[in-house]
Amino acid sequence: MPFDPVPTAFGLCLVVGGTVAAVGYRRGRAALEQGDADGSLEEWELNFHRAKLGRRRKVAGLLLFLGVAIPVGDAAILAVGAGARHWFLAYLGVLLAAVNGLILLAVLDWWATVSHTRDRIADVRAKRTALEYELRRLKEEIARPVEPVDPEPNPPGRLPRNRLRDYSFDD
């Protein structure tokens, strides 16, 4: 079987990239489960991260598939020779479909991240506006003069105080 080192090296790089992506998926999944167990993430944020991890898992699988399919298909086509014209078109179609899938997943991941980031920024701005409003209200409350509250002059059950008698020096 003929051997071409370029597709093999490229396939090996794709396998390494797919393996790194798969390990990243596992670590991300563990961190997501930890965040879910802690209750530190809201439900909509959990859904975003689950979908992101799903897309990245598919990317890892496609990279591994391409890393194996490119050198194997290239070697098989070289082994068959001139009679591999029809197989070459099918092989090329499968490779193009996998590459298009990668591109589609990348665009979807980018779009989802942009939307998620935009929503998070809107939430932060809304919280900031609410805090600024609360700060203004508290500053106005502090700036208002406080009127002294007079106790009842004659609470029930007590006689009025004789101030002159309290301060006499005759005793």
Structural summary, described in words:
This protein has one domain. It has helices at 5-38, 43-80, 85-143, 163-166. With 171 residues, the chain is mainly α. The longest helix is centred in the middle third of the chain and has 59 residues, at 85-143. The chain has 4 helices and no strands.
Keywords summarizing the entry:
single chain; 171 residues; mainly alpha; Phage holin family protein; transmembrane; transmembrane helix
- What is the chain-wise order of helices and strands? HHHH
Give Rg in angstroms: 36 Å
- Beta-strand portion reads under 5%
Q: Helical region count?
A: 4
Give the SSE map:
Layout: H1 5-38, H2 43-80, H3 85-143, H4 163-166
Region (Disordered): 144-171
Transmembrane segments: 6-25, 59-82, 88-111
Keywords: Membrane, Transmembrane, Transmembrane helix
Entry summary:
The protein has one domain (5-142). Helix content is 79%, strand content 0%.
